[in-house]
Specification:
single chain; 8-stranded mixed beta sheet; globular; disordered N terminus; cysteine-type deubiquitinase activity; phosphoprotein; USP_CS; thiol protease
Length: 1077
């Protein structure tokens, strides 16, 4: 066979197996013969093959031994992702009909050879392309929607700036979180990272590609190099992988909004990388067989050992990602044990060599990077769609592979036999223990020791000679009070008992029978009584028992119970010892020589048809786990990884485990400079062409930051200019209105030359006595009148000083008073807010002076003179005495506090009226603004837990409303419900995820679970289509915050109105059960 034919045959095997794997994954059928038959009938059309297998819906006939043997070698491939270097040496024991087989192979190779020379693509690759197209066409028209960007970049580049050497995230460019999870796992393998970064295209790359494969793989390799270089040296917090993703999407021929299967993508990615490195290796070779670094890094070999009718066979196979079944197993070792043994394998090493058939797999060569695919999806024949398996599956941080190695075959078989024997004995012991712990012959069973204890308690109870019915007072009313006591009637007298007469004044002949009936009810219905008679024993007791009988019975019961307890302890101890023996079976040094450390865990959250992917990757240098969730890269822990990855707890579970050989540190070792011996980091890692590429991108980002800063500085300057202009206009207006009356001090004349007129806060201004801050004017006048009454002879300046002290003392009491939530004095006066937040003394003084400088104080001459003194003092304050920027900042914070309060108050009012749609935006903005305020101080805002509770509850209420509309099934309601989810609920989920509190995370889980629960239900095709379209958006775990529309416009409130309304709303919350109070 020529080299070209050998290569073609290898490609043929690889892509035929890919096709079989896809069909098996979709249908859940494991019979290889049946799968091959379906592909033959459908001419390689995957959609028709699925229909053939689904419609057949019959049990597969049990294979006879000959049939099994003919397919055993193919069946072993279900664990294989065959590389182009696959070993094709097989010991053929099928019979003598080899000529026909060789002719068929030759014809197939000749035809494949011709197609390959013409297009560079094998028949199998063309078949895969047709299958993918058909599959996508069949995949419901639900995925034909036009993709819209849900998440947008922050306009502020500082928010997108990388902090120190934090790992760089990857932007989700449209249902591509699978790309991010896989690429980050590979990028953090430093050996793989070096291979990609230092990959140099073949010298003939500038010529026209020889075939379509080169035309596709080499550009992808270059884009992957560019992406990796940005992940190494970019100044950005996250980078855009769009170019590499687009090449992949073109290959998959899918719509851009479809969420690809990750295992399929990973297979394709490794195939492309393998091909790209193979092209380079073939060009560099000099007469010797080329070495492909991708094959050496990710591919291993195992030996399939089988037996049939006394004849043994061996078959060496190559594997990449090793698939493992999850259903029915509790940990990774159980999955591996089941995967390594197929059928009845006792005959493989038995002396009789009986006719039983089966095969074992033994690893002969493990790759440095060992990847396990956890099969968490199965096809539901009844529903006609795949479903996710949420079972819990544990896996270790350190995995020892010695027991699966071919060189330990004999020792492992001995240990497996010993474990099998121990498990059989364990089963017997557990069954025996179960008889002790679940004793009885009826449906209800109890521990035998407890049964004996109950019998002993019954025997030793106080004897009662009367009937349990007779000793109850028949005249006692149901309420438990006693009436007239009568002697207990005999059984013969009960039927002829005359009506009882009550001694009460209201009793009569007509009421007596009714009273008797009412009094007798408790006798027959004791649950209607409120208490038992005092002389009735707490438990049933024997009526007659002698001391001798009791002594003998107690002696027997004590002895039996002691025997049962001893037997139970012995059984439990034996079971524990067997478990410990099994656990320690492979812990001797000889079976701990092949250690593999967990490098990455790829997690899927959601259902089979939709979900979100992220990765946990171990950082050996910081000795911690990192969570890579699209653009978000955060520190994590083993506990969080276990919670999200083991399964059985939520919709999240691991679907891929990546282990690395712990004895090959080069996989994760940093690169050193050959001259200085220093570790290379950042841009120093990159070759010259990629350094230039990253440098240019960083320059673009620096320019973006510079332009942003210039723009913000210009806006700030314009705002200051507008503020100064408004202040000057206000001053000019006040001058014209006050020129008609004489003033003791002219404000304009006393203004220093270097002082810039300042615009006072709007809640401090008094343009008219009826404005929103009228109460402020009244407070000021009240303070002046009280001081003037005590100090009539004082000058205006002394009166001003005394009035300010009096007003400050009043407000200080408010600030120090411990008030209920509905009475918030900060809303009444800015000074209370400033005192509680420890504002500087100069800020307080200027604010109080501004209050007393109000032009609209009473027309009383004393008030006017005090007002003029206050205004003069304001004008005399020099810029170096009071920092006006700081003064404005404090008052801006107070304005923000008032606005946040109005948002909060409005949102709570709407929530109480069950108007959740309108309430949500108010609650969202109030929470966000309040969080910014609280970041500056504890008293800058409101109760964060309270706002968080109602924000969360509002989202849950909207989710319930939307789900109810969806369940209704009517088109208008379904559209409205999904509109609520898409426009309101889904954009707010990242806010809850970013907050990262347990209650918020549980709320998100509840929302998602409600919609995921519909996946297993029967529904109309149009509803299924809408659900399939909606779920990927709901399950996207990105914490990137959506840019919302402008906040709702707020009405104007005076301080008095605001306080009253706030008090009313907060008082109403006291009647609402809330964990946030």
């Amino acid at each position: 066979m020529t080299v070209e034919q050998n290569v073609l045959q290898q490609h043929s095997q690889k892509h035929q197996q890919t096709l079989l794997n896809q069909l098996r994954e979709v249908t859940g059928t494991t019979d290889v013969q049946l799968l091959q038959q379906a592909l033959q009938v459908s001419n390689g059309d995957l959609a028709e093959a699925v229909a053939f297998l689904t419609e057949k819906n019959t049990k597969v006939p049990q294979q006879d031994e000959t049939t099994y043997y003919q397919t055993s070698q193919v069946a072993s491939d279900r664990y294989i992702s065959v590389g182009s270097q696959a070993d094709t040496n097989v010991i053929d024991l099928t019979g003598d009909d080899k000529d026909d087989l060789q002719r068929a192979i030759a014809l197939s190779l000749e035809e494949s050879n011709r197609a390959f020379r013409e297009t560079g693509i094998t028949d199998e690759e063309q078949a895969i392309s047709r299958v993918l197209e058909a599959s996508i066409a069949e995949n419901k028209a639900s995925l034909k929607r036009t993709h819209t960007e849900v998440w947008s970049d922050s306009p502020n580049p500082h928010d997108r700036k990388r902090v120190d050497n934090c790992p760089v995230g990857l932007k989700n460019v449209g249902n591509t979180c699978w790309f991010s999870a896989v690429i980050q796992s590979l990028f953090n393998l430093l050996e793989f990272q070096r291979l990609v970064l230092h990959y140099s295209p073949p010298s003939r790359v500038h010529d026209l590609p020889r075939n379509q494969k080169e035309h596709r793989n080499l550009p992808f390799m270059q884009e992957l190099r560019n992406l990796f270089s940005l992940m190494v040296g970019s100044k950005r917090k996250y980078v855009d992988p769009s170019r590499a993703v687009e090449i992949l999407k073109d290959a998959f021929k899918s719509s851009e909004s479809q969420q690809q299967d990750v295992s399929e993508f990973t297979h394709k990615l490794l195939d492309w990388l393998e091909d790209a490195f193979q092209i380079k290796a073939e060009e560099d070779r000099e007469g010797e067989k080329p070495k492909n670094p991708m094959v050496e890094l990710f591919y291993g070999r195992f030996l399939a050992v089988g037996v049939l009718e006394g004849k043994q066979f061996e078959n060496t196979e190559m594997f990449g990602q090793y698939p493992l079944q999850v259903n029915g197993f509790k940990d990774l070792h159980e999955c591996l044990e089941a995967a390594m043994i197929e059928g009845e394998i006792e005959s493989l090493h038995s002396a009789e060599n009986s006719a039983r058939s089966g095969q074992e797999h033994w690893f002969t060569e493990l790759p440095p990077v060992l990847t396990f695919e956890l099969s968490r999806f199965e096809f539901n024949q009844a529903l006609g769609r795949p479903e996710k398996i949420h079972n819990k599956l544990e896996f270790p941080f350190m995995l020892y592979m010695d027991r699966y190695m071919d060189r330990n075959r004999d020792l492992t078989r001995i240990k497996r036999e010993e474990i099998r024997r121990l498990k059989e004995h364990l089963t017997l012991l557990q069954q025996r223990l179960e008889r002790y712990q679940s004793y009885g012959s009826g449906p209800k069973r109890f521990p035998l020791a407890d049964v004996l204890q109950y019998a002993m308690e019954f025997a030793s109870s106080k004897p009662v000679c009367t009937s349990p019915v007779e000793d109850i007072d028949s005249s006692a009313p149901p309420g438990g009070t006693t009436g007239i006591q009568l002697p207990p009637p005999s059984s013969a007298e009960q039927d002829s008992l005359p009506p009882l007469e009550s001694s009460g004044p209201a009793s009569g002949p007509n009421t007596a029978p009714t009273a008797v009936q009412q009094q007798r009810v408790p006798i027959h219905k004791p649950f209607t009584q409120s208490r038992l008679p005092p002389d009735l024993p707490m438990h049933p007791a024997p009526r007659h028992i002698t001391e001798e009988e009791l002594r003998v019975l107690e002696s027997c019961l004590h002895r039996w119970r002691s025997e049962v307890e001893n037997d139970t302890r012995d059984l439990q101890g034996s079971i524990a010892r067997i478990h410990r023996t099994i656990d320690l079976m492979y812990t001797d040094k000889s079976m701990m020589q092949v250690p593999y450390r967990l490098h990455a865990v790829l997690v899927h959250e959601g259902q089979a048809s939709a979900g979100h992917y992220w990765a946990y990757i171990y950082d050996p240098h910081q000795r911690c786990w990192m969570k890579y969730n699209d653009i978000s890269v955060t520190k994590s822990s083993w506990e969080e990884l276990v919670r999200d990855s083991f399964g059985g707890y939520r919709n999240a579970s691991a679907y891929c485990l990546m282990y690395i050989n712990d004895k090959k540190p080069f996989l994760i070792e940093e690169e050193f400079d050959k001259e200085t011996g220093q570790i290379l980091s950042g841009m120093d890692k990159l070759p010259a062409d990629l350094k230039q590429y990253v440098k240019e991108d960083n320059e673009l980002f620096d320019k973006e930051i510079e332009e942003w800063d210039i723009l913000q500085a210009r806006k700030a300057q314009q705002e200051k200019l507008a503020l100064a202009t408004a202040a000057a206009a206000s001053a000019a207006s006040s001058t014209s209105t006050s020129s008609s009356s004489p003033q003791p001090m002219s404000i304009e004349s006393s203004t220093p030359d270097n002082a810039v007129p300042q615009h006072d806060p709007e809640y401090m201004e008094q343009p008219s006595p009826t404005n929103d801050s009228k109460h402020l004017q009244e407070d000021t006048e009240r303070a002046i009148f009280r001081v003037a009454a005590d100090q009539e002879e004082k000058s205006p300046e002394a009166l001003l000083s005394a009035a300010i002290k009096l007003e400050y003392a009043r407000l200080l009491r408010f600030a120090q008073e411990d008030t209920p939530p509905e009475n918030d004095y900060r809303l009444q006066h800015v000074i209370v807010y400033l005192i509680q937040n420890q504002a500087p003394k100069k800020i307080l003084e200027r604010t109080l002076l501004t209050q007393f400088a109000d032009r609209n104080l009473a027309f009383d001459e004393r008030c006017k003179s005090i007002m003029n003194v206050a205004r003069a003092k304001l004008d005399l304050i020099k810029p170096e005495e009071v920092n006006m920027d700081e003064y404005e900042m404090w008052h801006q914070d107070y304005r923000n506090f008032r606005e946040t309060t109005i948002f909060m108050m409005t949102g709570l009012e709407l929530f109480q009226k069950a108007n959740y749609v309108e309430a949500l935006m108010y609650l969202i903005y109030s929470y966000q603004y309040n969080k910014e305020l609280l970041s500056k101080g504890l008293y800058r805002g409101h109760d964060e837990e309270l706002l968080g509770y109602y924000r969360r509850e509002c989202l849950l209420k909207l989710n319930e409303q939307a789900a109810a509309m969806f369940e209704n099934g009517e088109e208008p309601k379904v559209i409205t419900g999904l509109g609520i989810m898409n426009e309101l609920v889904v954009p707010c989920i990242p806010l809850l995820l970013a907050n990262d509190t347990e209650r918020d995370l549980l709320a998100v889980e509840d929302i998602r679970n409600r919609w995921c629960s519909y996946l297993g239900q029967e529904m109309e095709s149009n509803l299924q289509e809408k659900l399939t379209d909606f779920l990927p958006k709901l399950l996207d775990c990105s914490t990137e915050i959506r840019s919302f529309h402008d906040p709702p416009k707020l009405p104007a409130y005076s301080a008095l109105e605001l306080c009253e309304r706030f008090s009313r709303v907060m008082s109403a919350l006291g009647r609402v059960p809330t964990e946030g109070r």
